[in-house]
Design brief:
Low-confidence stretches: none
Number of strands: 7
CATH superfamily: 6-pyruvoyl tetrahydropterin synthase/QueD
Number of helices: 3
Strand content: 25-35%
Number of domains: 1
Order of helices and strands: EEEHEHEHEE
Distance between the termini: 16 Å
Oligomer: single chain
Structural class: alpha/beta
Shape: elongated
CATH architecture: 2-Layer Sandwich
Helix content: 25-40%
Mean pLDDT: 96
Radius of gyration: 16 Å
Length: 149
């Protein structure tokens, strides 16, 4: 079994703000991070170049991450203040991403995983390559990992 990883680190600048409105801590207020994403790909065989996946072919994945997280305010679809954030977007003070399933490292890891699976499918690699996991970190101390079952 072969594995390879692709990382978009904190230095990439996927800077977003979000809040976990259900939290009883200060996490229920807007706060932000330059998120880092690490993807692990797995295959039983290597391609003709001896690669699991062509890292250069993952530009679509980076673009998807930028579209969802770069300079975005990410709000859960069930946030009771969603109208407030929609108004902010209408007034041009923020660019909004609505997360249907929720916010936080765990949900961002799942969202990243889903994006990576879409890219692997778009590249026609699903017969050989599996997305094994996506890890998202807010900073050096906090991260969450979504692992393919």
């Amino acid at each position: 079994m072969w594995q390879s990883t692709k990382k978009y680190g904190h230095e990439v600048g996927l800077s977003c703000t979000f809040r976990q409105w259900k939290a009883t801590s200060h996490c229920n207020q807007l706060h932000g991070y330059a998120l880092a994403f690490k993807f692990t790909f797995e295959s039983m065989s290597l391609d003709h170049r001896n690669w699991v996946v062509d890292f250069g072919g993952l530009k679509q994945l980076k673009q998807m991450l930028e579209d969802k997280f770069d300079h975005k305010t990410v709000i859960a679809a069930d946030d009771p203040k969603l109208d407030y954030f929609l108004k902010g977007q209408e007034e041009g003070v923020l660019s909004l991403t609505i997360a249907p399933e929720g916010v936080g490292c765990e949900m961002f890891a799942w969202m990243g995983f889903e994006m990576a699976e879409e890219v692997i499918s778009n590249l026609g690699l699903t017969d050989r390559v599996k997305v094994l996991s996506c890890e998202v970190s807010e900073h050096g101390s906090n991260s969450a990992l979504y692992v393919n079952d």
